[in-house]
Write a structure and sequence with these properties.
Layout: E1 4-5, E2 9-13, H1 17-41, H2 57-85, H3 100-114, H4 129-153, H5 160-163, H6 168-171, H7 175-207, H8 211-217, E3 219-223
Antiparallel strand pairs: 1-2, 2-3
Helix pairs in contact: 1-2, 1-7, 2-4, 4-7
Length: about 220
């Protein structure tokens, strides 16, 4: 898709539709997984006047959790694939800092985000080096949550996918240990969402390149000079 220009800024198509779709599907499923997972780990007693056989609220919670987990998993596989075939902004080399320029950019971003210093020099138009590394680490947590989640589900499911991970439970020391690790990393998502939303709006303000709106329309802006 050709880039269009204005007086002092160039309009660049950064986030392709599969990347944007992955982002929003991921945001919805992770939110549902956090809420339902917390309830499953800390069940709330709700009293109804109906008979027990007429109540199925906890079963609904579990169903939503399992359904969201499957959608989350296959959505994650699509993103892994797109990291190999997508445009230069979606490729995996944006997530692993192998160049000196990326490490210098990470230090610059840390100064801007933590010390609130003035931004010097250009920052990557796609994911900056620090964001890319954090996203890569979050992908590792995504993978861990998928493995431990399917491992716990394998004991109550005859589906081939969960049963591929039934070896994880004895490896990690039993069902209780797997559940504890799975629940603990749920809080990683909670902290990640809070920091992620803050930094998106902050960098939108600092950079002025349409960071927030780019995940809706795909376009960012950069100076022509």
């Amino acid at each position: 898709m050709p880039n269009t220009t204005t007086s002092s800024y160039q309009r660049v198509y950064v986030w392709e539709f599969p990347v944007r779709l992955y982002h929003w599907v991921n945001a919805i499923t992770v939110t549902i997984l956090i809420v339902t997972g917390y309830i499953i780990g800390n069940p709330t007693t709700i009293t109804y006047g109906n008979e027990a056989y007429q109540q199925y609220w906890f079963g609904t919670i579990r169903f939503l959790h399992f359904l969201s987990a499957f959608i989350f998993f296959f959505n994650f596989l699509v993103r892994i694939y797109w990291g190999f075939v997508g445009n230069k902004f979606a490729r995996w080399n944006n997530f692993i800092p192998l160049k000196k320029e990326q490490w210098r950019e990470m230090i610059e971003i840390l100064k801007v985000d933590i010390l609130q210093t003035k931004m010097r020099g250009r920052i990557s138009l796609g994911h900056n080096a620090l964001a890319g590394l954090i996203y890569f680490l979050s992908f590792m947590v995504f993978l861990f949550q998928c493995i431990t989640g399917f491992a716990m589900y394998s004991s109550m499911s005859s589906s081939p996918l969960p049963r591929l991970f039934n070896w994880v439970v004895p490896l990690m020391g039993g069902d209780f240990a797997v559940r504890q690790w799975h629940h603990m990393f749920m809080w990683f998502f909670v902290v990640f969402i809070i920091i992620h939303v803050y930094l998106v709006f902050y960098h939108d303000y600092v950079e002025g390149r349409g960071t927030t709106s780019s995940m809706v329309g795909g376009w960012k802006f950069t100076r022509k000079d």
